[in-house]
Amino acid sequence: MSMLSFPLTPRFLDRLLELADVPWCRDAFDEEFRRRGWAPPAVGGETAVGWLEHWPLGEPGHSWHVVLGEYPGCSHSDDPGVACDEPACHEDSFLAFPLAYAAIDCVEAGTGLPVDPRHLWGDPLPAWATHKADATRDDFLACYTDAERLLRARLGAPLPTVPPVPSDEPERQMSWKRGNRLVSLFLDGNEANYGQDDWIGIDIRPFH
Fold it and tell me: Rounded to whole angstroms, how far apart are CA atoms 67 and 141?
């Protein structure tokens, strides 16, 4: 099977976990993304970070990405500097960092050949990614195991019971509480690709 993965390191995980400490509002994430070089300065008062999409962490089309949910903030205010603790204001607000995508049993229509990864994950493939055309399910699950080890080393034992992230019934999930945030490692079907592939990622969102 075809697999695309990001080479997660302890240092990059630490940078990722720092996002759990950012105030949950647009201005704060704009500032943080600009500081990291992930977003240009805002123009004309517009939000610098484009939520509700896959956001590149470098040059578009050539870098890895983060998946962004609804805009953070308060649904009762248009002020981008306002954060809110009400669950209803950010039920679908999150940042999900993909660690691996795998096209399991996915073949081209008509030929039966394994799907070209560029048809699923873009053309060209991100330069930061590692593509393995003949990966196994064990290779894919190893990405989950490696991330779990790093997260346990940073955050300790996971919570005994957690709400499902990012869908109702992920195949695998474990979560940690970091301040007012929920940090989750998950394995699930990739809805953005209509379930043609699975993905492993780290999800950060307000803790309810």
Answer: 21
**Block means of pLDDT (10 residues each) for the chain, length 208 residues?**
94 96 94 92 75 90 92 87 81 93 84 84 90 93 97 97 74 93 94 87 92
SS3 37: coil
Return all residues near 108 (Cβ < 8 A) that are at least 6 apart: 114, 115, 116, 119
**What is the amino acid identity at position 31?**
E
Question: pTM of the entire structure?
Answer: 0.92
| Three-state DSSP state, 110 | coil
> What does the longest C-alpha to C-alpha distance in the chain come to?
53
Identify each DSSP E strand in 79-171 by its residue range.
95-103, 130-132
Tokens of 186: 């998950």
Q: Which residues have CB under 8 Å from 11's CB, separation 6+?
A: none
CB 33 within 8 A of CB 39: yes
